[in-house]
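Q: Could you fold this chain for me?
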Amino acid sequence: MQKMQAEGGIGLIASRFSIQGPIKKDKASFILSARRTYIDALTKPFIPKSSQFSGSGYYFYDLNAKMNYTFSEKDRLYISGYFGRDVFDFVNGRQSLDVNIPWGNATGTIRWNHVFNRKLFSNTTLVYNDYNFNFTAAQNNFEVGLSSGIRDWTVKQDYDFYPYANHKIKFGGQYTFHRFTPSVVSGRQDSIEFNPQNAQVKFAREYALYVQDDWEVSPKFQVNMGLRFSGFTQVGPYKIYDKDINGNRTDSLEFAKGNSVKTYAGLEPRLTLRYSIDENTSVKGSVTRNMQYIHLVSNAGTTLPTDIWVPSTYRVKPQVSWLYAAGLFKNFKNNMYETSLEVYYKGMQNQIEYEEGYTPTTLEDTENFFTFGKGWSYGSELFINKLRGRLTGWIGYTLSWTWRRFPNLNEGLKYPAKYDRRHDLSIVGIYNLNDRWKLSANFVYGTGNATTLPQRFYLIGGILSQEYSRINAYRLPAYHRLDVSAVYTPVRNQKRKWKTEWVFSIYNLYSRQNPYFIYFDQEGNPVNGDLKVQAKKVSIFPIIPSVTWNFKF
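A: Sure. Below is the predicted structure, expressed as structure tokens.
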């Protein structure tokens, strides 16, 4: 990096800016960048204060910083940091309902790259990561909150070794110390607050060693084979309670800080074979075993985004999966078109769900309400990409099924997973009209998430109760939208050191109201016999036209 450079964009819904340049000539350089959307500010003028949705909105921002320093031809240091946050607010004034969902991530990385010789390279990396998620819903005089987070400290050592022209070997290892806050539930009813200060924080050590080889057996036949050994140890402080059939605590087992509670470990082999039938056609097959020690747990009884991450523990085993895949790849018209068709099957053990009827509580560890089963998914993926010509773009389509079966859920019958998506379609087209104008369009379609909704409502002692369907028996409406844009690049004045372009875009051209979550709206009074309960969907982004000025100098 020899000179300072800056670029950015100023638009109606988002702005960005980055600057990069030398710190010390031929030795050190830096990059700083920032982004911020202000859809919340843009939509406020269109939501009257008298509207029941006044105060609703969404925005995100992030900051990036990178620096590198060259000590010698063989040693270089990289330092980077990231901080990002999303915030979603939904307000229904008529129902006195207020939902606030902020979540975000912060990371810091230091990487040392060393060249031993022309055949051996290494990267030594230190990583800090902090993820947190918060959810708060308030209605009338009642409020409930859910928070979750993961904090990690990681050290990695990776090597790239090229012993021969037809072998590319990678090997190394890593160690991570995890700090989990899986689920902290708080609540308030009138002046009474439930805000636990003793939420159970969980700790674990994760470690792995790996080796893999990209082997070009012949010009037509390539093999990628690897083996990874991974392990995960839960450590104290941790307390386990034994219970009788009525759920009463009868005994406990306590582990001191740093003491091992439970260890899981296993081998994760992988093998990929690729054969070139001719210069335009190839086939590929692969098999992979994976052990996952950190789990995403969804509550089937709500469409709200309340998924949490939990670790493997004394009670919770790691998820184990086998993935089998095969594909056909073919290029046409002198590589103008790339096409591929792949099929896959994935079997999963030790899947996690909440027990039926689970309600968040401040008094119990969340894992006490888990139940375990298995899952499987299968499908096919089609991809077509046009690389050259005035019109370029691609079409991607996935047809898939994802199932779960738990002995203690849904009467032991299989049901679709929350994120089972039968159809997933993406179409992108880019047309170069001339040297100044470029037009593009992007269409996406996806089957709605599976969810569990009440089948009927009834009153018991004046209290509204509900009876739920089978697990994930309903679907949210399909997600789809069309985005279009036109980019205008003025003829550049060669005497100027900067260049610009204008981007005219419309997000969600036909203003599809894609649901983010569903809530139930109540009208009337049960005492008068005119109570009505209706499902209402909450959408985030309507049609959003925008103009952005991009610059670089």
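A (continued): Residues 82-552 form a domain with the Maltoporin; Chain A fold (CATH 2.40.170.20).
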